[in-house]
């Protein structure tokens, strides 16, 4: 039994939101890695390195999110099937051109920033400062990454 000062019904709601965040983050991780491997063109080196920085950061983030779900007393999703059912980020079927890679990642980062902002209010409402801190940190990273991607658009 989990007894951390947050009612079970609130823990369920927060964990469910975190499961969606985990799935979105993992999907964005896969996209960033996919683009890292397949980017071409005059900006190859710059984009290749930037996408690597982004997927490396996301690799650490998914672990932190999953561990918070576990701390709340629930199993973290971890299969492609579970992530596909939980994510709201659209996968890219083909290799897009570099400009579309940037736009796709920008949309993903902005989506996650907005999701974090919504979930933050729920966590704060029940005094779940641990989740609130995680969400605030994630929001800051995604907002900064979105700004950098937006700055690269033509």
From TrEMBL:
Supply the InterPro entries for this chain: DPS_DNA-bd, DPS_DNA-bd_CS, Ferritin-like, Ferritin-like_SF, Ferritin_DPS_dom
From what superkingdom does this record's organism come? Bacteria
What molecular function does GO assign, one term?
oxidoreductase activity, acting on metal ions
Q: Name one Pfam family in it.
A: Ferritin
Q: Where is the Ferritin/DPS domain?
A: 17-151
Family per UniProt? Answer: Belongs to the Dps family.
**Per its UniProt record, what PANTHER family does this chain match?**
DNA PROTECTION DURING STARVATION PROTEIN (PTHR42932:SF3), GENERAL STRESS PROTEIN 20U (PTHR42932)
Designated name of the protein = DNA starvation/stationary phase protection protein
